[in-house]
């Protein structure tokens, strides 16, 4: 049913974005928002990204979706204060295609949004599908001035040396390691190692999925100062961002 609905989808009217803040714990201020895709289907209602994105990739829709939503996200972010950054997710298909990478770069240029305020997130799984092509895409984005974040770090099976050979600027620790970190010694040790690694490599380290005060305190003790998650805020409509920034 999802595939059938996607084949008939009206991207302009059915897809939207919400934004989740990223907090710098050293100042307790918002420094960025991650744009997250939402699909409200007339037939199916709200469909989670984890269900529609893989199918959109399979049927060749993901590139249209990426370019449309990126343009929309950049337009929204252009109204933000200049110290607030935007984070946007790219799919494996986006990263492995020179043509699509070129389209993404042209959208960024046409938006006149400062590329230095834009972080493009790429998953470990996407990188390993075609390391050479993804490396080329990352290099092109970096030359433009964009940051490149490794999303869901720790969930793939790639070699560390391959990942660290890429021109990354940030790593995002997957929420599976953050949930219950205060009660799970194994997760604590893994995150401790990842934070130390990011520091050694001079990469920013962001913890995803923070939901409790105890998790937050564990991350502070490990020196992980960039976080996002429901403890601070669920993803919000862009119309709420101004008020959020006044208070945060």
UniProtKB/TrEMBL annotation:
PROSITE patterns: EAL (PS50883). It holds the Pfam family EAL. SUPFAM superfamilies: EAL domain-like. Residues 1-248 form the EAL domain. It comes from the Bacteria. One of its GO terms (molecular function) is cyclic-guanylate-specific phosphodiesterase activity. This is EAL domain-containing protein. It comes from Pseudomonas veronii.
